[in-house]
Amino acid sequence: MKKVLKKISETAIKQGEFSFTTEQVEAKWLGSQPATLAEIQEAETKLGLTLPSDYKDFLLITNGFTTPNENVDPSFSKISDIAFLKDVDPQLIEIWTENDELLEVAIKLARSIIVGGVDEEQYFLLIPPISENADWEYWKFASWIPGEDPYEGLENYFINVLDFLKSS
Asked: Which InterPro entries match (predicted)?
């Protein structure tokens, strides 16, 4: 995953379409310092669950990641800032709960953890599995998509971000 994140950083900075900090441009890196295991464990304790391994791997590479394209992709938050979506944007869950046809999405939103896109146009959500043997779900979520845009995992998402960057 680190190679993909590095390539996203280099490509976005080279294209020069978006403004980045001097430090990001000089380092050719849109990430930050890695999270510590203690910070990850503290977040897991706060949330009452064990985060998926690929997300923890991401955090050990970079504790947060600036979006290379703020109109299309969310920035990823520092581990200390992640939270359940129901605590950050309860109105969103309420809106989706009002429509019976969208109830399944609303239920997943109510369980989801927002790891990216706070105060942006779209969120990146991790949705814990209901049963122990099921997989986590990874969604980019925005009202203009409309709704959820699922990914097979975090690396799959970042590969899509890189592909989009290369095609623009």
From this structure: Knr4/Smi1-like_dom, Knr4/Smi1-like_sf
Please, what is the end-to-end C-alpha distance for the chain in angstroms?
A: 22
Give which of 119, 127, 129, 166 is closest to 150, Cα–Cα: 127
Average pLDDT over residues 124-145: 89
Cα–Cα distance, 140 to 13 (Å, whole number)? 23
Beta bridge partners of 83: 114
**φ and ψ at 21, to 5 degrees?**
-70, 160
Tokens of 103: 């109830």
103-111 and 90-97 helices, crossing angle to 10°: 160
Phi and psi angles of residue 65, each rounded to the nearest 5 degrees, phi first: -155, 120
CATH of the domain at 17: 3.40.1580.10
Q: Is the pTM of this model over 0.85?
A: yes
Q: Is the pLDDT of residue 18 over 90?
A: no
> Which residue range is the domain that position 148 belongs to?
2-167
